[in-house]
Request: fold
Amino acid sequence: MEWRSGRDIRSLFIEFWKSKGSRHYPSFSLVPDDPSLLFTIAGMVPFKPYYLGIEKPETPRAVTAQKCVRTNDIDNVGRTARHHTFFEMLG
Reply:
């Protein structure tokens, strides 16, 4: 398998789903418009009003590379290669 950068993987993922009819949404703010959350912790957070039936989505399919922040394992950041506070969630 050929090596690919994170940028390449993100682009290939988005282009694949766009070719299947998904609408591409750029990454939303890391600080969500949701009083129950301090940060955007998952790719579905910006779409929560649609899941809850509060709003109707503009299109039935979406693709995004959402920037996310999680602090639940902050004590392990820097101790292992897999613990981070910031990442991009493809979905």
In short: The chain has a mean pLDDT of 94.
